[in-house]
Specification:
This protein is mainly beta and 342 residues long. It has one domain: Outer membrane protein transport protein (OMPP1/FadL/TodX) (Porin, Beta Barrel). The chain is 8% helix and 50% strand. The strands form 2 sheets. Strands 1-2-3-4-5-6-7-10-11-12-13-14-15-16 form a 14-stranded antiparallel beta barrel. The chain has a two-stranded antiparallel sheet with strand order 8-9. The two termini are 38 Å apart.
């Protein structure tokens, strides 16, 4: 009951702050570059409305909160694909693991977004041929477990955008922190912080975002709940909520909702739904995002652990039973070296 009261208080505080800053960054809309970094990746997370800052525990979660990587128990690969509006597409892939038997984890990831081909026109409206637009980012993340309850992480990304013959590039950074105790999880993260995109003699900031999130995990029933509040530098603040129910470590049902504050009918607002299925060390995810004023998006993903059958804890360690996350054995839970027996 005390945990539930703490979570309820944290959620209320997050929502109130988000409402108070709903339009804080919207005046900067259109002033940033590398905006494909703001869309988010991963069918699992986006099927839950993008609520993950206090919940994530895999390589894909590190794209949202660098500290999520600190809970990784073993080497893992995550792939994600999405077909977006106007024939554009998004591809994301990452691989990570633990450094020897230490409490330090690493991951490298690549992110590509193709905007398709366009017909060029001159000042008189005559066609000048076709051109394409694309964006990509390559990054590395490192996370560290501090004691039994806390992980911290940080990363850097090299970003490049190209529109016809014009190209820009830059480097930006991510950082995060997570706390887990009992059923409760808390996270805070900064994405695309610092650095700038350079196009010839012109420079533009990245779309920085700061967020906080809380989560509840009840492993005995397979239920996971999360609520996040985000504060981007060049858009409306938003609140996201999501739920996931896992059955016997082999099937997952997900749902969520994202609401852009201070904006009605925003294309980023809407409900989300997701499914997951796994066997052994492999897990397949699907997510569907409804838009506030347009067609929905389909997301698919694949996750698998390397060097394990996954038979002990179900697919990718998503346990089908047992107790809730217990901070007293968190060291073992995240894969740190077991204690020697006398």
């Amino acid at each position: 009951m005390r945990t539930l009261k703490l979570v309820a208080g944290a959620v209320l505080a997050m929502i109130l702050v988000a409402i108070g800053t709903a339009n804080a960054g919207f005046d900067n809309a259109g002033t940033t570059a590398g905006n494909f970094l703001s869309l988010g990746t991963g069918a699992r997370t986006l099927g839950m409305g993008g609520a993950t800052l206090g919940l994530a525990d895999d390589v894909g979660g590190a794209a949202w909160n660098a500290a999520a990587l600190g809970w990784l128990s073993g080497p893992e690969v995550v792939l994600s694909h999405a077909s977006l509006q106007s024939k554009s597409l998004q591809e994301w892939g990452g691989i990570g693991g633990r450094i020897a038997r230490s409490r330090t984890t690493w991951a490298v990831a690549g992110h590509y977004q193709g905007e398709g081909t366009f017909e060029g026109l001159d000042a008189s409206g005559a066609p000048t041929g076709t051109f394409s637009a694309s964006s990509m980012a390559l990054g590395a993340t490192v996370a560290q477990q501090l004691g039994k309850y806390v992980t911290v992480g940080g990363g850097a990304k090299a970003v490049r955008e190209k529109l016809a013959d014009v190209a820009g590039s830059g480097v930006t950074f991510d950082a995060g922190m997570m706390v887990r105790a009992g059923m409760f999880g808390f996270g805070m993260a900064g994405q695309n912080m610092g650095g700038h995109m350079t196009y010839g003699s012109s420079t533009y900031p990245f779309p920085t975002n700061y967020g906080v999130g809380v989560a509840l995990v009840h492993r005995a029933t397979g239920l996971r709940l999360a609520i996040d509040a985000n504060f981007p530098s060049a858009y409306h603040s938003d609140v996201r909520a999501g739920a996931e129910w896992t059955y016997r470590g082999t099937m997952a049902l997900r749902s969520g909702y994202r609401h852009e504050l201070g904006s009605s009918g925003d294309p980023l607002s809407g409900a989300t739904f997701g499914l997951g299925a796994g066997h052994g060390a492999m897990w397949v995810d699907y997510g569907y995002l409804l838009s506030g004023n347009g067609p929905g998006q389909h997301r698919v993903g694949l996750r698998f652990k390397l060097g394990t059958s996954g038979s002990d804890d179900g697919a990718l360690g998503q346990r089908s039973g047992g107790s809730d996350f217990d901070a007293t054995n968190a060291t073992t839970a995240v894969g740190a070296p077991p204690k020697k027996q006398p």
